[in-house]
């Protein structure tokens, strides 16, 4: 129900109250300060601003009650927008408005007591509370619209900063410092980067992960792309990585790659690359989490994916040309041999066959590749090629060379 204009009795009471506006402003201001700690502490609004707001809103209110026609609610909307920008809670704002309206009603009561104008008081009360509904509705709508716009702007700003962080677009220390400040992350902190494969466009593979980490007092920043959900996670200490990895395993519904622990927010872009490399080492369709195993060789291989994939294909080309089943068996045996530090017995246990079978497979590999497993140079090249093939599985499907 909208307020449609003043009745004569209401207008008289409103005019009488307008004549005492400075006094009414001070009593309203004092009531708000006395009853509401959020205003007495000046947490969001200074006392001077609050007093000015009381005067402006009371003047608009009394004018609406005194003058015919549709009331001007622009001051209510302006107050709603301003308080949203200041971060004042909406319930507290509405309560302050109700205090102001009650102070006006008390003036009406005082004005009608002496002449026993019950009818005028009833009309004024009806008009006042109808106007309260209009005011609070207008204020609330303006507040929520402004808050939504602020939230949207902050969200877009945050996404842009996260994008810049992952893209390495931090040309100066000042820029990086600003990103760290606005994302509430430490410039020199300890971090992990997570790259999780999305199950579909717009779908998070790690739902609500930022909130879950926040509950465990780990700040983080995330962005969602059509293919990946990526995040940088702040660690309170390097040992905190293990609980986070366990949490990711619990939440993961697809492939998740994790970078090594690193220090310094400026290294985020490189860490993302390593997390993506770790993810690519998992078989498609797997629901698992793997962390990039940091080592000088792994870092070297990961630093140049194209060159590393080319190396893997050139070194292992004869084996990669074999039929799929045979190729898979030989490569698995060679990987196990490296993992087992060249022990034939341990390799046999790893691949579930007799040691003589392992020896036969290794001889087949060396014959195909024309390399020796006793020559340090050949071993170094084979180990690097295998590492590259693990990190970049597509290297096995490159077109064969001449």
Automatic annotation (TrEMBL):
<dbReference type="InterPro" id="IPR041522">
    <property type="entry name" value="CdaR_GGDEF"/>
</dbReference>
<feature type="domain" description="CdaR GGDEF-like">
    <location>
        <begin position="171"/>
        <end position="280"/>
    </location>
</feature>
<comment type="similarity">
    <text>Belongs to the CdaR family.</text>
</comment>
<dbReference type="InterPro" id="IPR051448">
    <property type="entry name" value="CdaR-like_regulators"/>
</dbReference>
<feature type="domain" description="PucR C-terminal helix-turn-helix">
    <location>
        <begin position="330"/>
        <end position="388"/>
    </location>
</feature>
<dbReference type="InterPro" id="IPR042070">
    <property type="entry name" value="PucR_C-HTH_sf"/>
</dbReference>
<protein>
    <recommendedName>
        <fullName>PucR family transcriptional regulator</fullName>
    </recommendedName>
</protein>
<dbReference type="InterPro" id="IPR025736">
    <property type="entry name" value="PucR_C-HTH_dom"/>
</dbReference>
<dbReference type="Pfam" id="PF13556">
    <property type="entry name" value="HTH_30"/>
</dbReference>
<dbReference type="InterPro" id="IPR025751">
    <property type="entry name" value="RsbRD_N_dom"/>
</dbReference>
<dbReference type="Pfam" id="PF17853">
    <property type="entry name" value="GGDEF_2"/>
</dbReference>
<dbReference type="Pfam" id="PF14361">
    <property type="entry name" value="RsbRD_N"/>
</dbReference>
<feature type="domain" description="RsbT co-antagonist protein RsbRD N-terminal">
    <location>
        <begin position="22"/>
        <end position="158"/>
    </location>
</feature>
